[in-house]
From TrEMBL:
Record field: transmembrane: 65-87, 99-122
Chief location: membrane
Keyword Translocase included in the entry's annotation: no
Membrane topology (UniProt): Multi-pass membrane protein
Job description of the protein: Iron-sulfur subunit of the cytochrome bc1 complex, an essential component of the respiratory electron transport chain required for ATP synthesis. The bc1 complex catalyzes the oxidation of menaquinol and the reduction of cytochrome c in the respiratory chain. The bc1 complex operates through a Q-cycle mechanism that couples electron transfer to generation of the proton gradient that drives ATP synthesis.
Protein name: Cytochrome bc1 complex Rieske iron-sulfur subunit
Start and end residues of each Rieske domain: 263-354
GO molecular function: 2 iron, 2 sulfur cluster binding; metal ion binding; monooxygenase activity; oxidoreductase activity, acting on paired donors, with incorporation or reduction of molecular oxygen
Keyword Electron transport found: yes
Length: 372
């Protein structure tokens, strides 16, 4: 069994069994075997021919597979672009998911097809052998440069690109179309509204019919609703340690649903009122230990949705910014530079949680028109 798994001995290469490392120890101070001063360069291993080198049929099949992979990449890229225009991005959650799925699959399959085709071409179609090129520390002479240029020309010829126009066209088409699923949506959004002042206000301050509750002083407040069910939340339903993902009630009926939701999402938490650290001017922003903060991280806008019940910390999963719920969501760790904006809340005459007003500061990360 041992001889069967043993590699054949090649001329010029020392067998491991022939090399004995000298050692000196306390029992045998003299070396047991003399070590050669240098080992001869064994050279490159013998280049074994591939099936595609000896069989023209196998070579043709390999070329067809490469062509199929490039074609698959082209079709996937085209499909992603068509899907972007064909699937409407309305308030239907299914359409958003389908559009995202089509774009993702188009990008993934498109780039995978290019990579797989390039690897298979190199392994099965291109001329395959190992070559050694010595590096020189100084500039080469003109003759050496000419040899290097000729080697590059030979490499292009050996790849077979010039002799295979169909594959050459497939490469060009796949490489040209693969970036389109990224570029087309990007270019298509260049004409959108870039008015950053809209981030200073959300629909929490609006109270259309059927979405508000009445406070004891007679004012209106938009009700807090579960996301995505859009059902209002009673204060009695929020127990200590519980967390609710919140949206303004009636948000699903808004025309600009996704834009408004991106600004209005809130995380609602209830803690023991005795551990809250509130400034006097914010004493009425919470209700019996229930506090509400924007879910949009003040670093780069990721959703802050991980709550550590024991430490009362909110964690952003993107860059680990950490906010203390009991201390006005101040930053205790990470790259964020300011606390999460707090949504002032109260309870209406029916026991539902409502927003007393909009956020008192812009939500999300800092941008060029803000001082901090």
């Amino acid at each position: 069994m041992g001889d069967r798994n043993r590699r054949p001995h090649r001329p010029g290469r020392l067998d491991r069994s022939e090399v004995v490392v000298s050692s000196i120890d306390q029992y045998n101070p003299a070396p047991t075997t003399e070590v050669p001063e240098r080992f001869e360069n064994p050279g490159l291993e013998e280049n074994l021919p591939r099936l595609t080198d000896a069989d023209s049929g196998a070579r043709k099949r390999a070329e067809r597979l490469v062509l199929i992979l490039f074609t698959l990449s082209i079709l996937a890229s085209i499909g992603a672009v068509v899907g972007y225009f064909a699937i409407p991005l309305d308030n239907t959650l299914g359409n958003v998911r389908l559009s995202t799925l089509v774009l993702g699959l188009g990008l993934g399959i498109g780039f995978f097809g290019i990579g797989a085709a390039a690897i298979h071409w190199a392994k099965a179609v291109m001329f395959y052998y190992e070559r050694i090129e010595l590096r020189h520390p100084t500039e080469s002479d003109p003759e050496t440069k000419q040899v290097a240029a000729q080697m590059m020309i030979d490499g292009v010829n050996e790849s077979g690109i010039a002799r295979r126009p169909v594959l050459k066209g497939a490469i060009a088409g796949a490489a040209a179309l693969a970036p389109l699923p990224i570029l087309v949506p990007l270019i298509g959004n260049l004409g959108d509204d870039w008015d950053v002042s809209k981030f200073k206000h959300t629909i929490w301050g609006e109270t259309p019919e059927g979405t508000y509750g009445t406070l004891p002083d007679g004012s209106r407040g938009r009700r807090l609703a579960r996301d995505p069910e859009d059902t209002p939340i009673k204060a009695s339903d929020v127990t200590i340690g519980s967390v609710f993902h919140v949206i303004p009630q009636g948000l699903n009926d808004e025309e600009d649903f996704y834009e408004e939701k991106a600004k209005s999402v809130v995380l609602l938490v209830r803690v023991d009122p005795r551990v809250l650290k509130e400034r006097p001017e914010r004493a009425d922003w919470s209700y019996d230990g229930i506090v509400a903060y924007s879910k949009i991280c003040t670093h780069v806008g990721c959703p802050v949705a991980l709550y550590e019940q024991q430490t009362h910390h909110l964690l952003c999963p993107c860059h680990q910014s950490t906010f203390d719920v009991t201390d006005e969501a101040k930053v205790v760790f990470g790259p964020a530079k300011r606390p999460l904006p707090q949504l002032p809340i109260a309870v209406d005459d029916e026991g539902y949680l409502v927003a007393r007003s909009d956020f008192t500061e812009p939500i999300g990360p800092s941008y060029w028109e803000r001082l901090k």
